Amino acid sequence: xxxxKKALSQLLVELPEKVTLVAVSKxxxxxxxxxxxxxxxxxxxxxxxxxxxxxxxxLPKDINWHMIGHLQRNKxxxxxxxxHLIHGIDSLRLLxxxxxxxxxxxxxxxxxxxxxxxxxxxxxxxxTSELETIFSLLHTLNHVEVKGLMGMATFTSNQDxxxxxxxxxxxxxxxxxxxFSPPPILSMGMSGAYQIALEEGSxxxxxxxxxxxxx
Length: 215
Ligand SMILES: *Cc1c(COP(=O)(O)O)cnc(C)c1O
Description:
The chain has helices at about 5-15, 30-40, 50-60, 75-80, 90-105, 130-135, 160-175, 195-200, 210, and strands spanning about 20-25, 45, 65, 85-90, 110-115, 145-150, 185, 205. By secondary structure, the protein is of the alpha/beta class. Pyridoxal-5'-phosphate binds near residues 24, 68, 152, 207 and 209.
């Protein structure tokens, strides 16, 4: 059995029903995506706009493309027509630009708000007061659909710390539950700590290296 097939089937048996697996294919060739696709995988994640657009152009059109990386406002227009879910909305200005591009093409674009849960300053994300501001303005943004939250834990081997950061995000997710378009999505967990994320209530995990090998 191929490495991808083995890794994918092992992940899928661990996955609770209703949890989505996004296969993070950044830096990996189209052949790796086609292989996972042939086993039924349909959700793929990329973190660079140009790479995402190139892969979307050449690969099967029923793939759900997730933009999981930091997104610059001037690049939203390139992915607006096809992106399935933008995970990294980390400012009101970015959300407004997504809304503007959605309006231009008559599409309601699904997004997640990225929350800063890590200790590291380097990671992107909103704090609670910024989240509240966004929710208070959501009724003015008719071409975005906020489906939930996304977060990245600190890069550490301290499992307790990772768990408490995921737990914090889950509590925020629950407290804003009524503001999300159904079904609500909580995107947390990567190869290193997806089991903890699942235990803490993740509904979507983003798995790269455990599936496609190290980058
Ligand atoms: C690269 C990346 C992942 C996948 O990371 P792995 O450790 O390879 O599973 C998940 N989420 C984001 C935002 C990423 O940039």
